[in-house]
Amino acid sequence: MLSIVTIGVRVFALLFGAVVLGLSVTLAKQQHEGKPPSETSFGSFTGAFGIIASGIGLFALWFDKISPLVTMIIDALASIFYLAGGISLVLALKSVKSCTGKDAVSEVTRFTNKILNGGCTTKNGQLWCYVGSDADNDGIHPDLIGRCQRAQADYVFEFLGFIVGLALITLGFLAWRRGGSRTRAYA
């Protein structure tokens, strides 16, 4: 029974890793000026590591060559990376109070945020950010709203990946304790 639960949790971990990787790469690809912010680059790494960790864990379910202790260590690393990535994105977006706010303060905080604006440069003495679209009639940049929502989804899935990682570590510990140092019940 424990291995069925573990397979289900592993599949969620794999999906969360893929979502984090996809969202982070999308945010990084929208950077037109300079290098992508380190938070989005780390998110890409975290998602890829989560996918690899899930793959190793699923592989270990059917092959005894991988020790449950090794998979627990890999899951612990993935959990730490997910937590660090989520916290770094939350801190980078701290100044952004609302992704959909139509007031001037919300728009300015989105416009000047390094995760959302696509990079900025100075042209003719004015700050120029590559937000991707002109403002609509209300002065709102729709691409900034979309990027903001993607960034929020990214850190939410990183925190979910952290929680799933903790669940996998717990399942691994229970199976390891029940079956000794080598068991196929956990991966």
Automatic annotation (TrEMBL):
<protein>
    <recommendedName>
        <fullName>MARVEL domain-containing protein</fullName>
    </recommendedName>
</protein>
<feature type="transmembrane region" description="Helical">
    <location>
        <begin position="69"/>
        <end position="93"/>
    </location>
</feature>
<dbReference type="GO" id="GO:0070941">
    <property type="term" value="P:eisosome assembly"/>
</dbReference>
<dbReference type="GO" id="GO:0032126">
    <property type="term" value="C:eisosome"/>
</dbReference>
<keyword id="KW-0472">Membrane</keyword>
<feature type="domain" description="MARVEL">
    <location>
        <begin position="6"/>
        <end position="167"/>
    </location>
</feature>
<dbReference type="Pfam" id="PF01284">
    <property type="entry name" value="MARVEL"/>
</dbReference>
<dbReference type="InterPro" id="IPR052649">
    <property type="entry name" value="NCE102-like"/>
</dbReference>
<feature type="transmembrane region" description="Helical">
    <location>
        <begin position="40"/>
        <end position="63"/>
    </location>
</feature>
<dbReference type="GO" id="GO:0005886">
    <property type="term" value="C:plasma membrane"/>
</dbReference>
<keyword id="KW-0812">Transmembrane</keyword>
<dbReference type="InterPro" id="IPR008253">
    <property type="entry name" value="Marvel"/>
</dbReference>
<feature type="transmembrane region" description="Helical">
    <location>
        <begin position="155"/>
        <end position="176"/>
    </location>
</feature>
<dbReference type="GO" id="GO:0072659">
    <property type="term" value="P:protein localization to plasma membrane"/>
</dbReference>
<feature type="transmembrane region" description="Helical">
    <location>
        <begin position="6"/>
        <end position="28"/>
    </location>
</feature>
<keyword id="KW-1133">Transmembrane helix</keyword>
